[in-house]
Amino acid sequence: MFEETDRKLCIICSKGTLDMAYPGLVLANAALMEGIDVTMFFTFWGLDMINKKKMNDLKFVPIGNPTMGIPNAVGGLPGMTNIATKMMKKEIAQLDFPEVGEFLDVIVDSGGKMYACKMSVDMFEDMNMMEEEDLYDGIEAVVGATDFMEMSEGAQIIFI
């Protein structure tokens, strides 16, 4: 870790695909290495990143991604999500980045704070998509948007 600063970074993670999980994790880790106070807030599909049942099985969906270089008709073929996910996981491993669950551990062990969005957790529970006990153990609390506003005062905020 570098010299501690009085800087604060809040990262809002709203998506639960493999390609959208790593930007927030990498930024949080880099900020912590620079001595920046980091708070992560997981909302909507970003809850998949902290769902113990899903966190290490996130997918990369190639359809609708204009930078993939393949037509949507091909990206939508059966099995393409699994192929694209396997390829991305291989590249992530070659770069020596940990899987999502291990990356969360690194961030928490380095002092990062993590919170789940109360509205999203309640909504997903109502739809029988998850239970609060499915949340990653490093989550400090399930909080509302107003609580997050208080936590993020004076921070740089990144929405992913």
- Portion of residues in beta strands equals 15-25%
Overall spatial form: globular
Low-confidence stretches: none
Count of distinct strands: 5
The count of helical stretches stands at: 6
Radius of gyration: 16 Å
Secondary-structure element order, N to C: EHEHHHEHEHE
Described by strand count, sense and barrel closure, the largest sheet is:
5 strands, parallel
Q: What average pLDDT do the residues reach? A: 92
Full CATH superfamily name of the domain at 8-56 and 101-159: DsrEFH-like
Structural class, by secondary structure, is alpha/beta
* Major sheet strand order: 4-3-2-1-5
Percent helix = 25-40%
- CATH class category label of the domain at 8-56 and 101-159: Alpha Beta
CATH architectural designation of the domain at 8-56 and 101-159: 3-Layer(aba) Sandwich
CATH overall fold name of the domain at 8-56 and 101-159: Hypothetical Protein Ychn, Chain: A
Distance between the termini: 25 Å
Keywords:
globular, single chain, five-stranded parallel β-sheet, alpha/beta, 6 helices, Hypothetical Protein Ychn, Chain: A, 160 residues
